Amino acid sequence: MSGGREPLFLARQTYRRRRVADAARLLPLLGVLLFMLPLLGAAGAGNGGEGTGSTSIGGIYIFAVWGGLILAAALLSGPLSAGNPAPSGNDGETPETTRTRDTEGRG
Known about the structure:
Layout: H1 12-45, H2 55-81, H3 95-106
Helix pairs in contact: 1-2
């Protein structure tokens, strides 16, 4: 019934590695949201007739967000690359060795 299920409580290192991986997966969505914010502000500013920001401020904002995303990706990649290359759930077996072992027993 519980074959192949992971334990309820994970080791601290495994838990942190998964949370960093989750943050790395959400980073592109954060980038899209931050890149869209000036467009949302420009749509709302059209009602008053006068622009609230200039092109230079928008350009500086875009490059600041871009640099921030690069910095965040660099900070997140460190803990992800320093972890164990083999998953801890399969006793160090790779998918190739598992597949070979399964096909040898079938005959």
